[in-house]
Automatic annotation (TrEMBL):
PANTHER family: RRNA METHYLASE, RRNA METHYLTRANSFERASE 3. Keywords: Methyltransferase, Transferase. One of its GO terms (biological process) is RNA processing. Residues 123-269 form the tRNA/rRNA methyltransferase SpoU type domain. InterPro entries: Alpha/beta_knot_MTases (IPR029028), Ribosomal_eL30-like_sf (IPR029064), rRNA_Methyltransferase (IPR051259), SpoU_MeTrfase (IPR001537), tRNA_m1G_MTases_N (IPR029026). It comes from Candidatus Faecivivens stercoravium. GO terms for molecular function: RNA binding; RNA methyltransferase activity. This is RNA methyltransferase.
Amino acid sequence: MPNIIPLHSLSDPALGLFTRLTEAQLRNRLEPEKGIFIAESPKVIRIALDAGYEPAAFLMERKWIDGQASDILARCGDTPVYTAGRELLEQLTGYALTRGVLCAMRRPALPSVEEVCKGARRIAVLEDIADATNVGAIVRSAAALGMDALLVTPCCCDPLNRRAVRVSMGTVFQIPWTRLGSAPSDWPHPGLETLRALGFQTAAMALREDSVSMDDPRLLSEEKLAVVLGTEGDGLSSHTIAACDYTVRIPMARGVDSLNVAAASAVAFWQLRAR
């Protein structure tokens, strides 16, 4: 039976998980095993549960309990289900109204780079991408378009950021991923050396005169390839580009100089996927 707990005030401490804690507080860098992230919408929550993620608490309007969230709650034992009427929820952030159901979920321990890359032929590496929407879109493209795993640098936006999870449509729970180092000094060195030790050639996506076109047959012939994408605006750092095995560009028409990093990732993943 669901453990239903009615809310009567916005000052209720139970709402802190959903409305008052920052992403950094939810993530709990000092004690990762106590960290939390927020999943929104029944579809995304189901994917997370299927992947083994553990719920800590729910927040929803009462009608969802016996409606579209009933099958979810049946899977979650006595996990607290905080609920309130529409008028109270309308005073919150808007997430509860637009997505119906929120679930605070416990963060698992991140696997090692070696575990994530075991058996992988194509991986994506995200360098310092700050925008959660872009990270979520890239994760979704990576999952859909043939990437076997995804690595993020220490300064990259958290793939379990609330917006990133939502934009990924739950695919962040389906594709293996982890962080490539824990401190800013871990990238690009020794991060790139770690990839080479695992047998990967590295392809830096960048607009440079010495770059090769994405349809270069040498890229497709690589047994193991890491596609490295840079932050919005500035792109990859010059140190990263210089240290990668290839510098790769997407051919452009009509004088367009570049694509948004999320759009570029989709093109790159499709073209460079393992055959």
